[in-house]
Amino acid sequence: MKIISIFLIFSYFLLAQESYTIISFSPFYSYGKYTNQTSSYSKAVYGSVNFNGDLIFSSGVDLIKLDNTNWSYNQNSMFFLGIKKLSSIYLKVAGAYIKGSYEDDFFSEFNYRDENISLTTELVYDINWNYFGVAYNYFSSSKGFQTLKASNFTLRFDKFLDYNTYISFRPNLYYENSSKKFLSLSSKLTYWFSSDLIANLSFTFGNRRYYFDNDLLTIYNQYDVQKFVAGAGLDYSIIDEITFSGGYRYTKFEKFNINYFFAGFRAKIFF
């Protein structure tokens, strides 16, 4: 928690040196239905400050509740992201602090509290609007007296196929202190039907665990191993300052599957 506080202070100091141009606010809600009789409910709020695209700071809060016929789990997450552009190079620093509590409906001795920290650094190189990057993520999880530490290495290959089509690839290597290793590949295709309507499709193949997306500021911190993910989304702008978003995501784990639905909007203020 101390590391996050230091970064927040540093980010506010940087922002104080410049006058920002865009402030954005984004509330989102998602619902997930598990095949093991569990439901999830998420309420999230994100905010960001953008100064001429050269300096960006974002943060967010996500409150999640899992309901099962035999237990319940509440999780509170805080996210931050800082991006600094240096000529054709982008430096990204992101992280998450997650705290949860598990309560068994029948056996109180199974109850526990857990705390998780995720920190990511990434360098991205821009070549004519094509992006190549490498990211390192450190993840630490404590549950009672158990501690898990893991590392993720992710490469970034993003390219505009034409004026309307953008594709990205994210190969990922996961390694944890129990010597488990996983490989996965994520891909996302974005298409602009117009400046007001954008659609995207995303897929993940292979195995992964504790994956932190430092673009969307979302984290997949389930202990169970993901096997496959597929999703689709739409963004529609009624005016330049307000964009509505919605979509669906299917996630397959080793022992269960989840169907997610999410919706929200983004509002911008220009200065």
Structure explained in plain terms:
This protein is mainly beta and 271 residues long. It has a single domain (2-270), classed as Beta Barrel (Porin). The protein contains one helix and 16 strands. The strands form two sheets. It has a 14-stranded antiparallel β-barrel. A two-stranded antiparallel sheet has the order 12-13. The longest helix is centred in the first third of the chain and has 15 residues, at 2-16. It is globular. 17% of the residues are buried.
The geometry reads as globular
Question: What is the strand content?
Answer: over 45%
Task: Assign the CATH superfamily.
Answer: monomeric porin ompg
User: What's the CATH architecture name?
Assistant: Beta Barrel
How are the strands ordered across the major sheet?
A: 1-2-3-4-5-6-7-8-9-10-11-14-15-16
Enumerate the spans where pLDDT stays under 50 for 5 or more consecutive residues: 1-18
E-strand count: 16
Briefly note the CATH topology name. Answer: Porin
- Mean pLDDT metric: 90
Number of helical segments?
1
Structural class, by secondary structure, is mainly beta
> Largest sheet at a glance?
14 strands, antiparallel, barrel
Q: Work out the count of structural domains.
A: 1
SSE pattern: HEEEEEEEEEEEEEEEE
Indicate the percent of residues in helices.
under 10%
- Rounded to the nearest angstrom, the distance between the terminal CA atoms is 33 Å
